[in-house]
Each structure stands twice: as C-alpha cells, then as structure tokens.
Design brief:
The chain has 2 domains: 124 residues, Aspartate Aminotransferase, domain 1; 262 residues, 3-Layer(aba) Sandwich (Aspartate Aminotransferase, domain 2). The protein is an alpha/beta fold. Helices cover 34% and strands 16% of the residues. A 7-stranded mixed β-sheet has the order 4-12-11-10-7-5-6, with helices on both faces. It starts with 28 loop residues before the first strand and ends in a 10-residue tail after the last helix. A hairpin with a 4-residue loop joins strand 13 and strand 14. Helix 3 runs parallel beside helix 9. It contains 12 helices and 16 strands.
C-alpha cells in the first residue's frame, strides 16, 4: 500500500468521535464523482453511506456544481441581519411549498444539531410568550438521537448517546418508549397525563431513529404521537435531519403518517451533500407567537453564516433535481433491491435483525460492528459500522450493479464475522 500523502498527519487536526491517542489515519480522499470516492493511492471506494447521509444525488452533480459556481461569482456570503439575498428567499418559499400543512416560516442555520437546538428554543419561548413559562421541559423517546449541542444532548437517550461526560449539565428531557403498540401507547398517554402541564414539546425522529441504531417505527406510531400532542396541547418537533429529502421513500417522513409537525428540522441532504446548511421550519401559529410590539417576544438567535448564499444556491439546485430527476422512484427501486439482497444475512449466526426502509438497509449484529470497517475498505467500499449495526444509505443515483456490490460485500464481511465471532454473545450498547 502506498505511503499516505505528507499532508495527512494528526499533529493539528482533531477528529470527530475519535480517541486521538489511538486513532488511525483517516483515508485521504482526493476526488469524488457519482457514488465513488477517489483515494490518494489510486484506489476507489463505492460510498455506501452518502457521506453521513448527505450526498443523495451522488458527488459532483453538474447541475449543483454549476449553481454553486454561478453563485460564487456573484455573491458568496452576506450577513442575513438587515441584508437579504435572493437564493435564501427563494429557498424558503420552495421549502414552504414542499412541506405539508402550514409549515411555512423558515429559520436558517448551518448544521442539523443547531437546527434542533433552535426548534427546542422556539418551543420553550413559544410557551413563555403565551404566559406559560412553567412549560419548559421536552419529552423525547428512548433510542433517539438529536445532536451534539447541549439541548440536543439532553434530548438524546443517554443509553445510545455519546455524551456521558456532559450528563447533568443541562437537565435531561423526559423519556418515553415510542408508542408502538397498545402497552407502550398506554404508558405514553399515562406519562403525558401526569407531565403535560410542564412540557413544551415532544421531539421525534419520524419513522427512523437514526444514529441511535436505525430503529424503525411505522406511520401509525407517528400519527399516535401527533394525536397525543394535539390532545394535550403540546408542540410536536419532527427531527427530519436524516429522514428528510427522500430517504424513507417520501420527500419527508412525516408525510407517510399525514402528520404535520409544529416544527420540522432539516439538514444533511438539504444541499445534496455539498455545503453546510440547515433549516428549522415552523407552522403559522408558532411563528405568530413571536410577533408583537415587544422586542422580548422575538426569537433571539442569529448564526453568523445563516442562509449562506452559496449553500442556499446548492439547496435550490438540489430541489431542482428532485423535480427533474426520478429520485423517489430511485429510492423505491433501492428499497426493493435492499430487501431482496440483504435477506441472506438474516440466517447468519449472530445476526439479530435485517431491516429496510426506503434507501436504508440495516444488518443488526449481536456484537460490536465498528471493527469491521477495514474489511469493507479492503473490498473497495466505504461503510462505517457503529454500535452493533452495519448499515447502507447509498446515494439515490447508485445503479443496480454498484448496489449489489455493496450488499454482497455486507454479506461477505458479516458472514466472516459470524464464523469467527466468539461463542459467547457480547452485545454492544448503541
């Protein structure tokens, strides 16, 4: 194997989610096109996870590239306080038209975690502006993950999160099991009966709990949560950072339950994986709670790079592609192929579950999966297992041959792991 390029060292870069005393050098990427990453040593990897679920159109799509280049030549950035630019206003109007119901007021930021932070901030101030400051807690669900900022850490299930060092700094959310069945629904309603007067909002990842282990729930569960929020007068925040823009088979996951959240959070695939951008979108009644003569009623938040013009241009171009190219049909085809080709993993010893939703395929093991990463790279694919799951979230433009290569590689690596794993089962907490 070739020596790494001389710029690749860990003298000055602090890597995410890594113990820097033992972290190996990351793979040096020098280019990307379509579904392939080009490494400095000449190898190519098929990207099976869309760069943390962002590159829905693949890499280097000419329409997005051209839009960003055109915008960079005209205006790359200007502060969004007291100044305005067309790409952001166009994007806000397009998002409002695409989202269900009256989700029509868009607040821009730069990352998914921050968009959820802003949503929770909106929910808390919503009640304060209504003269109900006692409503200052958030209910979240076990198995959920909402981000790395302080409020989002507090709303992330501590059993699946990575934030033990910060436990207790911010009061944690109230946690419940997802109301999937009669028993869990009864427990959920009992909890709300007791706690609703102190709650500002319920936050949920619709249909798929992402970084908590890719656990699925059905549209009926989401509809049940919406109905409970309506009954108790609570705001519903939908964290669609991962599910938004087609990943679950509809443009937004909440559409499958015909459930309109009061606030929705978007990021990741918003720009097609090109530039950082996020949006927190509120319904009319939430927005109206911040209007009035008193300045104190306003939402006091303003990221420096909010509504960055380059990022908004990329997002508008990405939305163009959803209009012009058959993305949701591609997702449906990916779903069918994943269901068929991953099923063989189910019979392997040590495989707990195989599940598929839209362009997401998951193989859950009864032991840690992170150590399998090098085996995937050796076979020419980029997957990043974590906890006890191996998962696929490919770009929507992947062809059947490349997707088969991904699923075949998953089977090969998991089969070898199954043969070599210790006799005693050791579960890894996700």
């Amino acid at each position: 194997m070739a020596e790494p390029p001389n710029w690749l060292n860990l003298d000055h870069v602090w890597l995410p989610y890594a113990q820097m005393a033992t972290a190996p050098l990351p793979l040096p990427v020098v280019g990307a096109q379509g579904v392939r990453l080009a490494l400095a040593d000449g190898r190519e990897l098929i990207d099976g996870i869309s760069s943390w679920w962002t590159a829905c159109h693949g890499y280097g799509h000419p329409h997005i590239v051209a839009a960003v280049q055109k915008q960079a030549a005209q205006l790359s950035h200007v502060m969004f306080a007291g100044l305005a630019h067309e790409p952001a206003y166009t994007l806000a109007a397009r998002l409002a038209a695409l989202l269900p119901g009256d989700l029509e007021h868009v607040f821009f930021s730069e990352s998914g975690s921050v968009s959820v932070e802003i949503a929770l901030k909106m929910a808390l101030q919503y009640w304060r502006n209504h003269g109900r400051p006692e409503r200052r807690r958030v209910l979240a669900f076990r198995g959920g993950y909402h981000g790395d900022t302080f409020m989002t850490m507090a709303a992330t299930d501590p059993a699946v999160g990575m934030h033990e060092a910060f436990r207790g700094i911010v009061p944690p959310a109230l946690f419940a099991d997802l109301p999937r069945d009669e028993a869990s629904a009864a427990a959920f309603h009992e909890l709300l009966d007791a706690q609703a007067p102190t709650l500002a909002a319920v936050v949920v990842e619709p249909l798929v709990q992402g970084a908590g282990g890719f656990r699925l729930h059905d549209a009926a569960t989401l509809a049940r949560i919406r109905a409970a929020c309506d009954f108790h007068g609570l705001l519903l925040v939908a964290d669609e950072i991962m599910t938004g823009f087609g990943r679950t088979g509809s443009l937004f996951a909440c559409q499958q339950a015909h459930a309109v959240p009061d606030i929705v959070c978007l990021s990741k695939a918003l720009t097609g994986g090109t530039l950082p951008l996020a949006a927190t979108v509120a319904r009319r009644h939430v927005f109206d709670a911040f209007r009035g003569e008193a300045f104190e009623r306003a939402l006091m938040h303003g990221p420096t790079y909010m509504a960055n013009a380059l990022a908004c241009a990329a997002a508008n171009a990405s939305l163009d592609l959803f209009e012009r190219e058959p993305r949701l049909l591609q997702v449906a085809a990916i779903e069918d192929q994943l269901r068929h080709e991953l099923e063989a993993c189910r019979s392997l010893p040590g495989v707990v579950d195989v599940r598929v939703k839209g362009a997401l395929g998951v193989v859950e093991l009864d032991g840690p999966a992170a150590g399998l990463r090098p085996a995937f790279v050796e076979r020419g694919v980029w997957l990043r297992p974590f906890g006890n799951v191996v998962y696929l979230m490919p770009p929507f433009v992947i062809d059947t041959a490349d997707l088969s290569r991904l699923t075949t590689t998953v089977w090969e690596v998991v089969a070898r792991w199954s043969r070599e794993r210790p006799k005693e089962k050791v579960r890894d907490v996700v």
